[in-house]
Structures are given as structure tokens and as C-alpha cells.
Amino acid sequence: MRLFRLIKIARVVVRYGLDEFLLGHERVHGLRRLLRALFFWRSLTRPRGERLRLALEDLGPIFVKFGQVLSTRRDLLSLDIADELARLQDQVPPFPTEIAVAVIERSLGRPLAELYAEFELTPVASASIAQVHRARLHDDGAHGARDVAVKVLRPDILPVIESDLALMRVMAGLVERLFADGKRLKPREVVAEFDKYLHDELDLMIEAGNASQLRRNFLNSDQLLVPEVFYDWTSREVLTLEWMDGIPISRIDELRAAGIDLKKLSRFGVEIFFTQVFRDGFFHADMHPGNIFVAADNRYIALDFGIVGTLSERDKQYLAINFLAFFNRDYHRVATAHIESGWVPKDTRAEELEAAIRTVCEPIFDKPISQISFGQVLLRLFETSRRFNVEIQPQLVLLQKTLLNIEGLGRQLDPDLDLWQTAKPFLQRWMNEQIGWRGMWRNLKQEVPQWAALLPTLPRKLAELTAQNPTELLVHGYRGLMWEQKKRNWLLAAIAVLLAGLLATLWLR
Question: Number of folded domains in the chain?
Fold first, then answer.
């Protein structure tokens, strides 16, 4: 099967002239004349980016999805290709309804009529991983006769995915070996990330958990609606969600006709993004127009939770510092934050990095979003990253993808949106809560229970310390500092080292 798949890929590569992507490289430059002679019959009049997009669509839904992910990696691609790949649409014909019904009944263990009072046989949406049917639950007194969306996984999709992923790994290895920037840009890591997210999408229980988490995070929000998950009708292959009525975000004329405040909606989009990233460290990472609807009360409706991103506290802190410094045009702080976080080599001169960042970012300030292209800015930043050997952070790739989606939504809804003024107050408030007095007080309250458990043991620990020799004492104190720092108990760590040093001094006397 893999051999036939490889033959099809080779045929598509030849048909769309994708071999030209490698012809300019010095290691294969000698093949230019040979390949042109072999494929003399080709007429390659379309731009290379368009040909690549068409080739991925021809190869099937898994390659389409990979192209969508790859479009966010503008460090790997030139701008014309990245823009073209961003146009990829994950739309495929539905599979037969009788197969969908069989999957539902086998997975949930009951006949369809017992599971749903009504079930529409024609799917309302179909994508590469699953398709969606509208249905209605029986009125059991607990949930009522609720309208629901039933997402059904495509049958026998795993072998196809595994075969395509194996070929992608081979291609990523070639990129690493053939291109000078290959290792730094981590194409194999990109494929590995895609592998992880794709396999997560194949388990609808994971998507159900993501939806539940996002719903809790935005419960009673006046900006975002997230559908409820009905777990009694959910499994690895079937996901049953609350049906949400709304207008697709891309239908601007319908939104205006419905009286939706587009300026308010665009501002909400920015605030929702920063809330997910900095408050929760958990964000919807597939916010393309097909997954976003608008309710009649001017709230966003989020759909399709197969891909989410998460950030550690350290990531959130450095991102907030970078964003806030950026909004304040403090490029020196942006440079030092990159060095402190390890995103650039430690021996990087902050002044040089500062000048490079200023050159890229300064021209875009005081401009509405209609006059800003984040794609252009990211491309320039990635050119700078090559010069300073910036390590690509895999955990931030999804964040970048989401930010580009937000730009696209904002550009559609309100071209005059001032992104900086909308985001800056939110970030300042978040930073005050994290590292200001309120943040310090919250951290103290979180640590008090642990301190209460440790303080009664201090006399015994001190007695144990006095029984050690000075060298062991100092080593023990140092190790205590390292351990406590990891747990952020800086006060106890300092006390441990001071006590160890004092006792060692007394012992030496």
C-alpha cells in the first residue's frame, strides 16, 4: 500500500512541477537539464505556490491538513508559498450515512433509535477526519429533548494517516540534509507535532475533554460560547455536542443584516485570544473561519476542539514580557527577554538583536490592522532569526497559527481595529496580577499550606544538620536551594542556605 501511495505522490510531484523546489539547490543542480528533458511535455504556467497548493489538495485530506499547519511556519517557507497554503480548505466528500450509523451503534452500544429521537441522515459538514450530523436527544427528564451535533470519525482512516506520516518523516529528513537551515528549523519536529495533533484528533474523547475545559474557562462569558458535551453519547469515535445556532464568521453581509456589531466583535476576538493564552494557558488553536460562528447576542461560538495549545507558566511569562515590551516599543527588553528565555544563544549581544527587532517592528506602529500584515512582519522576524540563530520553539507554532487566524478575522470584521490599544491594557492588567502585589499575595496564599506542613519539621531538620560535617552541610544547603527554587519556595530555600552556612561557620569555629 505504501508503495502505491509513493507512486501517486511521485506522479503528483511531476504533474505540478514540484521538483523545481529542489532544482535550485547546489546538491541537485546537475539534475536540472535531465528533469527538464524527461518532463518536456509539462506546461508550468501557474505560480509555484498555487501549484503546491493544488498538489496537496490532489494528494488528499491528510496532506491538506499538513499544508495548513505548514502555512504557519513562515520560517520554513517564502511568503508567496505560505500565503497560498493558507488558502487550503479542509473540505472533502462525506462518507455514506449507513457507515456513520454503523460506527455510532457499534461505538455507543445501542441502536440509533434508542440513542437519538431524531437523526438527520444527510451530514451538515464533512472534513478529513470526521463528519457531522444534526440530531435530537430523547427527553429523559435530565437533558430534555436537546438538539445536538453528532460528530462521527471516518472509518479506517488510521492506516492512511500512518502511511502518509511515514512519507512526511522521510521528506522532513531530506529537508534537514539538503538545506543549510534544515536542522535549526526542525522540520522533523514539525512533522512530529503534526503527528501528535493528528492522533489527538482521532480520539474524540480528547476533543470532548478540550471542549469541556474551554467551556469551563468561559462559563458565563459575554464574549464566547462553547457547546456542552454529552458524555453519555460520546466515545472515541463519536462526539455529541450541544447544537449551536449562529452565522459563520466569514459571512460578513449576513452578520451586518443580523445587526451584529462588527467592531465590538473584532475587539472581542483579540480579548478572547489574550485571555486564553495568558489567563488560562489553554487556547483553541484551530480558529479558522469554518470553526467560528457568531450568535445573535454578538458572542463568538467556538466549534471543533481537536487542536488546542497549552503554555507553561514560563512560556506565558516570557510571552507577556515580550508583548508588553513590544507594545511599549521597548525593543531592548524584547531582546533581553529572548536571551533570558533561551530562545537565542546566551552570547547574543542584546544591542544588536534590539536594533534588528526595531528595524522590523517600528514601521507597523500607529497603523490600523488593515495596513498591517503579520505575515510580512513574521517573515522579516524569521529572517532576523536566521541571523541570530534563534531556535524555533515548537510549543509556540500553534500560537503563531492562532495569531495569524486572529489577524484574518480582525481584517474581515474591522479593518480599522487598533490591535495595540486593544491588547495593551489586557496585558498590563495580566502582568500586574502575575508579578505585581496582587500576584505576590496570590502566590503567598498558594504556598501557605505547604509552609504550614514544613515549619513543624524544621527543629528535627536542624538537629539532623548539626550531626553532619561542614562539607556535607554546605552541599546539603546548596541542594536544598536548588530543590526549593524548582518548587518556587524561594523564602524557605534562602532560609535553608542561610542556616546551613551559619551552622557550618559555627562548626568550623
Answer: 3
